[in-house]
Amino acid sequence: MVGKRTLVRRRMRRRRRGWKAKQNQKIVFLSPIPLEHLSWTGLLVYGELSQHLGMAGASIHLEQLPTTSAPEARVEATLRRITKRSPVDAWVLYRMPRAVQRFVQRLAVPAVVFGNAYPGIELPALEVDHAAALRHAIAALERAGHNPRSVVLVLPESEQAGNLNVEASFLAEIGSRRKGQILKHGEDCGDFEKVAHSLLRKRPRPTAVIVFRNRMAARLLGFIPHRLQFCVPADLSLLCLDDAPFMADLVPEITRYRTDARRAADWCVHALQRQLSSGIRKSWEHRPIVPDFIRGETLAPPPKAAGHDHPPREGVPP
Questions:
Q1: CB of 155 closer than 8 Å to CB of 183
Q2: Secondary structure letter of residue 202 according to DSSP
Q3: pLDDT tens digit string along 73-117?
Q4: Tell me: the pLDDT tens digits for 261-284?
Q5: Domain coordinates in residue numbering, the chain
Q6: Where is pLDDT greater, at 206 or 68?
Q7: From edge to edge, which strands make up the β-sheet containing 292-294?
Q8: Which CATH superfamily is domain 4-128+259-291 in?
């Protein structure tokens, strides 16, 4: 028997096959990071858009817009330069901050927000509910015997709505005055050594870490045991709110949360095509997707010394 989700996907694909773009329509995929650093879900959405919009006669262009520390006026000036080079018929906003979402909304052209939309943004948004995954992760750690105040959250240094929701949920779970339990890193995850040393210098030493990005989780999994002589998960449980195909091949396999990437791609393509063919509408729904829990092998009870200071091992920063 064919499931409801399969029927919905087939219906979306039939609609996409029957849609034709106007001649030379240009869609801009706006991202704060290069194509090779997109999440697995982001890459699949980009690929689906390229395939189906290309078949319909449109073209998709990736524009990188670093937004971590740029002032709002500079961000808007960059967006105006993009629109002046050639007219943009539609936008895909991948993890874009409030200033970008507001600017594109004022343009009154078709757009899709891939990630969390800010309050007041009336554009269709596909929101991965990382905050729900975080709450589940903390509950799973508590069931394993961890104290939430011995858990550290590792997040990208940005003001994206999704990140802010995760940070707020984390502080609500462990106590709003404990911001010292949050570590930030750069968009490209290149500062993983600094994050690892900061993590293991904390006193009392954390018993678990929840990481937002899969690339950072994979780097910590390799660096902490082999360079700092600290065992995962015997000394430190490691959970990730993100997923990618390569994570199933890691040893030990990281405990993580998986977004249905194919479902996300289908929705984004359909929402964009619907706007391009029938015109923009306000107050579009924000579609939440709750990630699925993948048990993996890096969630374990806390070490026996938890609650006391761990004796440092060779190579572990004092």
A1: yes
A2: -
A3: 888 888 889 888 888 999 999 888 888 999 999 988 899 998 888
A4: 888 888 888 888 888 877 666 556
A5: 4-128+259-291, 130-258
A6: 206
A7: 182-185, 151-156, 208-211, 237-240, 255-258, 292-294
A8: Response regulator (3.40.50.2300)
